[in-house]
Design a protein that fits this description.
single chain, 4 helices, 29% strand, 3-methyladenine DNA Glycosylase, Chain A, alpha+beta
């Protein structure tokens, strides 16, 4: 359901949410939360419906695996910051850095269900259909996110993730990550998560069914 809201009802996730050690758990817990941006005074928001987890140690699919570069330096910082990189020289992909400093874990936000600022999303995407943010590149475009925002604190007023006490229960499906065939056996990790039955996910997923999260 697409509707207009007052974004102030969404409380920013605390730093402790991002500092947890298990990036897979963070990736699952981000589902149902709301990603919000304020770009030049234009506020847009979307419910996170699809994520992928990446571990900075021993995960060949992770950008930080085995190397530390200027691009990935932000991944080695404290959890709760945005890591935005350019894919194929075209798409700006936004990730959530997790864990404590030096661990280089991150969660890729893969799809959003538009919630607020729909007209602005349509203008940015030059698109009038409902699926304005059903892939990692399209969602960044819809939300006004680009590589210049890498390193942004997710407790700031430019990009943040919020939740409220009205979040619904839902079933989570898990499957393999997309576009990481080069990662050998790590490409088979079931670290992609979607809200079951949500029409805004980037691609259908048919894998393990996980426990419904508890939103107490």
């Amino acid at each position: 359901m697409v509707f207009e809201i007052n974004t102030s009802v969404y409380e920013k996730l605390p730093r402790s949410f991002y500092l947890r050690e298990d990036v897979v758990e963070v990736a699952k817990d981000l589902l149902g939360k709301v990603l919000i941006t304020n770009v030049s005074g234009i506020i847009t928001a979307g419910k996170i419906v699809e994520t992928e987890a990446y571990c900075g140690r021993g995960d060949k699919a992770c950008h930080a695996n085995g190397k530390r570069t200027p691009r990935t330096e932000v991944m080695y910082g404290q959890g709760g910051h945005a890591y935005v990189y350019l894919c194929y020289g075209i798409h700006h992909l936004v990730n959530v850095v997790t864990n404590k400093e030096g661990r280089a874990d991150a969660v890729l936000i893969r799809a959003l269900e538009p919630v607020y600022g729909i007209d602005a999303m349509k203008e940015r995407r030059k698109h009038t259909k409902a699926k304005l943010a059903f892939g990692p590149g399209t969602l960044s475009q819809a939300m006004g996110i680009n590589v210049k925002m890498t390193g942004t604190d997710l407790l700031s007023d430019q990009i943040w993730i919020g939740s409220d006490d009205k979040e619904e229960n839902f079933e989570i499906l898990a499957g393999t990550r997309i576009g990481v065939e080069y990662a050998d056996e790590d490409a088979l990790k079931p670290w992609r998560f979607v809200i079951a039955g949500n029409k805004f996910v980037s691609k259908d997923i048919k894998k393990a069914r996980l426990t419904t999260p508890d939103f107490k």
